[in-house]
Every structure is written in structure tokens, then in C-alpha cells.
Amino acid sequence: MKKAQELFKQISFDTRVVGTRLVKSFALTLSVLFAVPSNAAEQTYQLETLAEGLNFPWSVDFLPNGDLLVAELEGTLKRIGKDGSSSNPISGVPTVYRASQGGLFDVLLDKDFTTNNTLYLSYAEGDSEENGTTVARATLTGDALTNVEVIFTANPRKYAPLHYGGRMAFTSDDMLLITTGDGFDFREHAQDLNSHLGKTIRINKDGRPAQGNPFLQAPKVWTYGHRNPQGLAIALDGTVYLNEHGPKGGDEINIIAKGNNYGWPAITYGKDYNGAYVSPLTEYPGMQQPEHVWSPSIGPSGMAFYEGDKFPEWKNSLFVGALVNMEVRRLTIENQQVTAEETVFPELDARIRDIRVGPDGLLYIITDGDKGAVIRVNPELN
């Protein structure tokens, strides 16, 4: 870690069917064109709008009775019924810091929700002088949250309302994994283990450091060297996929593993927004290379790894939302490597904020904005 910090100092220069579609594969990743075989897989589907008129929805999770919980950036948590009806906002949600990218982020049900009614929320907390990523757990009773308890606070706090990360997932060993961003103006913190910024955090459900974490001086940190991770998906075999925003270019897919350094800002395939180099290096000993890179940026967002049977041609695929390109990318994964890429659901023509696989084996897509929607992807009926 000390070598990485020294390196950075040396280089820091500054229920309605809305469409039916047949899709075929194409792919492009950082000047690498994936050829599509002549017998390329085809998959038909139908898009169904479950709810619309949402106010900057950020994430979704699934209640045992089939209802959805949708977190809106403005700080509201809503229950969406199977018939598309929307409840009044659920009470008891912690106060969020709503500014720029800050607000309410992820909602995640405990794996034992059916017996403990526990869920987890990530959000921006604080004010314009000091704010940061926070995670709380709570009990959902009817349409109210009770027993709200903060279990993680990213330190140090920062002033910029940007780059929070905020995605959560449970690992195969039932530990809570949380992503944090670098705070935008604090990129050097991503290489500093004394800071929570630009990390993945691995903790127990009560906030205690998870057993087996790699750094004695940073007991909650699992990996470091991240910019702004916005997508997190865990395969059935336990593989953890993470996507993160590059600056101007250099968006990445990474496979997350214990103690790894993913390089930001010492190595990157992107440039700063003014065109200057963040670093002249794209690789360095001891720093991980991404599994996939997008240049120019697509603005990756929520992500899901599909292993179900409802869409057999899409099995073992990563679905990645794209905020900039206003589309969904599907990446074919073979032996943990990206072998092909395609754009799917182009008829949505909207910024995509989140993608999840529901307990029914179907895909659910959240569109961004003040008229956001929940879209379900169904197999096309023959």
C-alpha cells in the first residue's frame, strides 16, 4: 500500500407490455471487437411496465409476497404492489443528504427477511461541509421502519456531494459487502487504507468487521483502489463482479477478491474531464487489471448476473445499466472472462439506474429520472 501511495505522488499531474424485441450479439471493448459467431444466440422477450412516475428511483428489492421495495434518491422508500399500485412512502427512513449525487441509494433485504423482517439501506448522510456514505439496518413492519441502527459510516467525511458508491450485496458467506466512492476531489484516498473512500467494505450484519478481512490497520476494508463503484453482482459460485465509473473513459468491470488493489488513481484507462492524464500508467505491479473496459465511458450503473432458466440464451450473462448511453449492455461470461457484448432493450431509450434478477427468475430494470419506472422483462409468449 505504501508503494502505491508513493507511486501516486510521483504521477499526480495534475402490468403493460411496451415492446417485443429480438436481439443479436455484437461487442466492443476498448478497441477490442468481439466477433459474433454465425450461430449467435437469439433471445426473444417482452417488456412490461410495472410502475412509473417514480422520483429518481435508485434500486429495487423483492418482498416475499411478491411486492417490490423501491428506493428513490430523494429519500423515500416505496412499496410497489404486484398490480403496480404504489404505497405511501414507508415511514422511518433515515434522513438523507440530498444534493447532486447524494441521497438514498440501495435497499437490500436480509437473507433471513422472512423470519426477521430486517433490511439495509445505504445513503448519503451529513451536510454540505461534511457528508459521506452510511449504511443502516432496520425492521420493516407494515409500511414503517423501526429499530433503525447505523452499522457503517464511511470516514473521513467530505464536502463534495459526489462519488458515494453505495451498492450493497451479501456474499456467499453472508457477509455484507458495501461499495464506497473516492469522493471525487479525494481520489488519493482510494490508495490509503486509513480511509474508507474508494473501497469495498466487508462487515457482519451488525457492523463489526468480518472475520478474515485482509488488513489489520483497516479491519473493515476488503479491497481498495476504486473510483466510484455503481454496480455489484454476486454469482451463485460466489464470484463478485463490480463495475465502476472511470473519469473520461476507463469504466471498468472487476472481479473482487480479498485484499486486491484495483489501481485507481495510480493506473487507469481514462483521462481527466479536462483531457489531462490522471496517470500515464494503465498497469503496475501489484495492481489488478480490469476484466473489461469501456472507452468512451458508458456510465455503468446497477448490474445483475443472470443464471436463471427463463432466458436460456442469456444464461451466465452480466447485465449492466448504462447511464450515459441510455441502454443495457449484456456481457457473456465464460470462465470469469468477458467473451462477447451486446446492447439489449434499446427500445427503452432511458438512463438505466438498476438491474436485478427477481426470485421469479425474471429481469427487473429501473429507469432513472423524475419519471422513473420499473420494467419487468418477460419471456415472449409463443
Structure characterization notes:
This protein has 382 residues and is mostly beta strands. The protein has a single domain (2-14, 16-379), classed as TolB, C-terminal domain (Neuraminidase), CATH 2.120.10. Helix content is 4%, strand content 42%. The strands form 7 sheets. The protein has a 5-stranded antiparallel sheet with strand order 1-4-26-25-24, with no helix packed on it. Strands 8-9-10-11 form a 4-stranded antiparallel sheet, with no helix packed on it. A 4-stranded antiparallel sheet has the order 12-13-14-15, with no helix packed on it. β10 (131-141) and β11 form a beta hairpin.
Give me some keywords for this one.
382 residues; mainly beta; Neuraminidase; 4-stranded antiparallel sheet; 2 helices
List the helices and strands and how they pair.
Elements: H1 2-11, E1 16-23, E2 28-29, E3 32-33, E4 43-54, E5 57-62, E6 68-72, E7 76-80, E8 104-109, H2 113-116, E9 118-126, E10 131-141, E11 144-153, E12 168-170, E13 176-179, E14 199-203, E15 221-224, E16 229-234, E17 240-244, E18 251-256, E19 292-294, E20 300-306, E21 317-322, E22 327-334, E23 337-344, E24 352-357, E25 363-367, E26 372-379
Antiparallel strand pairs: 1-4, 2-3, 4-26, 5-6, 6-7, 8-9, 9-10, 10-11, 12-13, 13-14, 14-15, 16-17, 17-18, 18-19, 20-21, 21-22, 22-23, 24-25, 25-26
